[in-house]
Design brief:
2 copies of one chain form a homodimer.
Chain A: E1 12-16, H1 20-28, E2 35-40, E3 44-46, H2 51-55, E4 65-67, H3 68-71, E5 78-82, E6 85-89, E7 94-97, E8 100-103, E9 106-109, E10 113-115, H4 121-126, H5 133-152, H6 156-163, E11 165-168, H7 172-192, E12 203-206, H8 218-230, E13 234-236, E14 241-244, E15 248-251, E16 256-258, E17 261-264, E18 268-270, E19 281-282, E20 286-289, E21 301-303, E22 308-310, H9 323-341, E23 356-361, E24 364-369, E25 372-375, H10 377-390, H11 394-410, H12 429-432
Parallel strand pairs in A: 1-2, 1-9, 2-5, 9-21, 11-12, 11-17, 12-13, 20-22
Antiparallel strand pairs in A: 3-4, 6-7, 7-8, 10-18, 14-15, 15-16, 19-20, 23-24, 24-25
Helix pairs in contact in A: 1-9, 5-6
InterPro entries (chains A, B): FAD/NAD-bd_sf, FAD/NAD-binding_dom, NDH-2, NDH2-like_C
Enzyme class (chains A, B): oxidoreductase
EC number (chains A, B): 1.6.5.9
Chain lengths: 434, 434
């Protein structure tokens, strides 16, 4: 590693992943007596909460991504390497990567989560996940390609399959995607495809449990459902996917829907690197950590964010897989690492719940903050403000704001482009999931 | 074709290509008694003059592209099909396409131009062209990937090959690309890669003729060269590429440069569909047309823009391959088509030269308008204004303006992201050239 040229005698903290947790951790270690080495397979940070707007043509991909090197510009104890981690070898205190072996004094796993197909190869092959920017661009291309194809399809069942959308999972991602596609249909597609009868396009949201937005208040859950139904989404709760062969989805209520568009947002699992013993993996594929984010059995390997499960009284299965939890753990771990290096006692992590929110469409959002709940127009503005302020980079905020204002007044989406046509058959592991 | 459902008894004008010419032609045919059917392999119009800013991280791809369907929203005699044309069959008045056969009454070839490697398979395989959005995104990814790789490369020759850039062709594209990469090096890379010695990065611009910007005034040619040299670009005129094997380029002056980054902007050729007789193809692979843009030997097949060569007194080899020429031909042909349909005499095309310009970098541009020539800051503002106003769509103008203002004050580029890693070996015909 060249990076060692610029190494001082400071201990090296290697951070795998430039998500919300990894970034906060690295920032907090600025000016501290450590060398920080961050690895990520992308050279940018992804603002995942807005991926659904990239997928549905509302935002350009570049405005929700930010170059990792730029975040740490001028931070002299920080190094970045664009690399893929292959495995952790704790015995030798090294990780094996696509650019060679890298040694660590302290290792932090901040790899986040990936789509969970619950072991189904069929679902993994035929449905569309949306956890990365390339995936959301594939989704955008597929939606638009299927609409184009529906124009020249004569067979009524195949045509209907091209026009039907099934979104699985009633969490924030599923709800936001379903709402966004419903608005696309209502305001944009009608004008873009005057030849199509928009009544032939159906949007289904399928959720296994009895409610949408599980962890939110009853009030917000009911409003979300109402908002979606106002937009014409067919909401099917208490319903699961039984099978899907790429043309027809079968649901647990025996309903069959011809569809080429199944968007999979029904589950996530921790993205655990090889080398972490299997017995440390708990529910949701997360790594069990103690109250200091330390992985059981190691005193120099930590995990934060979505990939970590810290069992506490309030959160026996770990904290929610949301950005604020990852950010707080990153900041907290930075302080603890310095304490550990200085042989002081680390402090246990305490999660401050900042509330949760989801947007369904124009003027339609739901917000829970502690005991305060509100829905509708004001909630929608709050949602936009919070997301805008959470974006990294002034340019990104400006570009997203311009797009939102423009869309608000024009009822339009700016970026419905098939930049790279999606072709399921030519997808490789490399292009599909990264 | 479903499209025939909405057909009236109007004659059908089929337009191949949604570039500057095709768009103007279709717009001018609005409210006329014809059915317009446009085909394009992309669902968007590309503003090619700004591709180099996408390639060098200054603009998001989506801001220089515009959905074709949206341009013609509400134009009731217009249909769009996202399809690839395979061949023209004039005997039967049909074209064969990826979505089946389509019949025409009048056919307009507005396919533009593609990169000309002058028959060299080696150059086609190893150098990077930049005529489409996917190509400019590949170029962006390649530049950034090679920089990342140079950080971990120990062999000095291989490292130097990763850092050296050779741009071929001293036309506007080559000049703008070279200037843009030089500014990237000067203002951005120095901060992003503090580990790299920026003196190791060399940028060469290689041009076969004795001057840059061939068709422009001597004054502008000399200023362009001076501006580039001020930015540190090594300008080699009277120099051609002898060979390139992917690692080392050999020039006609016997100079050898180790480089993995060869950007090919040394030539274009008309993109002629199959079925046009070979004897109609002239210099630059363009189709010979008469003064009414009619292809010799046909009274119902026309060609406009880059792909057409109309020999006139002032332009014996055809008009310059620039947007204004294509736009003027498109508008003119619309009027002539109506005349022809009404059995009136068509009028010969007359090109109005609006001048030419090129930008080298911040505050550095050259402009020729008739006898008026100016260079420097004012020229740069004129260049920006003209390009901004030529972009299709208010949202695009706004987003580009925001990016330009932000870059002006921050000396930064917003979008240096490797969204889809470039991998030469896995490139197929499909992903590489479209």
């Amino acid at each position: 590693m060249n990076s060692q040229d610029s190494t001082t005698n400071f201990p090296r903290v290697v951070i795998i992943g430039g998500g919300f947790g990894g970034i906060q951790l690295s920032k907090k270690l600025r000016d501290k007596e450590v060398q920080v080495l961050m690895l990520d397979r992308h050279n940018y940070h992804t603002f995942q909460p807005l991926l659904y707007q990239v997928a549905t043509g509302g935002l350009e991909a570049d405005s929700i991504a930010f170059p990792l090197r730029k975040i740490f510009k001028g931070q002299s104890n920080f190094l970045f390497r664009n690399a893929e981690v292959q495995s952790i070898i704790p015995e030798r205190k090294v990780i094996s990567t696509s650019i060679g072996e890298i040694s660590y004094d302290y290792l932090v796993v901040a790899t986040g989560s990936d789509t969970n197909f619950f072991g189904s190869k069929e679902l993994e092959h035929y449905t569309m996940p949306m956890k990365t920017i390339p995936e959301s661009l594939n989704l955008r291309s597929m939606i638009l390609q299927n609409l184009e194809e529906s124009l020249i399809e004569k067979d009524p069942i195949r045509k209907s399959a091209l026009l039907n959308f099934v979104i699985t999972g009633g969490g924030p991602t599923g709800v936001e995607l379903a709402g966004s596609i419903a608005e696309l249909k209502r305001h944009v597609l009608k004008k873009d495809y005057p030849e199509l009868d928009m009544n032939e396009m159906n949007i289904y949201l399928v959720e296994g449990s009895p409610v949408l937005l599980g962890p939110m208040s009853k009030q917000s859950q009911e409003h979300a459902r109402k908002f979606l139904e106002e937009l014409g989404v067919i909401v099917l709760t208490d319903t699961r996917v039984s099978s899907y062969d790429g043309d027809k989805i079968v649901l647990s209520n025996n309903q069959e829907i011809a569809t080429k568009n199944v968007l999979w947002s029904a589950g996530v699992k921790g993205e655990v690197p090889e080398g972490i013993p299997m017995d440390r993996i708990v529910r949701g594929g997360r790594i069990k950590v103690d109250h200091f984010n330390r992985i059981d059995g190691y005193d120099d390997i930590f995990a934060i964010g979505d990939v970590a499960a810290m069992s506490t009284e309030d959160y026996p299965n770990g904290h929610p897989g949301v950005a604020p939890a990852a950010m707080q753990q990153g900041q907290h771990l930075a302080n603890n690492l310095i304490k550990i290096i200085n042989k002081e006692e680390p402090e246990p992590f305490k999660y401050k719940d900042k509330g949760s929110m989801a947007t369904i469409g124009r003027n339609r959002a739901v917000v829970d903050v502690g005991k305060i709940r509100f829905q509708g127009v004001f909630a929608w503005f709050v949602w936009m403000f919070v997301h805008l302020m959470s974006l990294v980079g002034f340019r990104n905020r400006l570009v997203v704001l311009v797009n939102w204002i423009w869309s608000y007044f024009s009822y339009d989406r700016g970026t419905r482009l098939i930049i790279r046509p999606f072709n399921r058959e030519s997808m490789t592991e490399d292009t599909a999931n990264k």
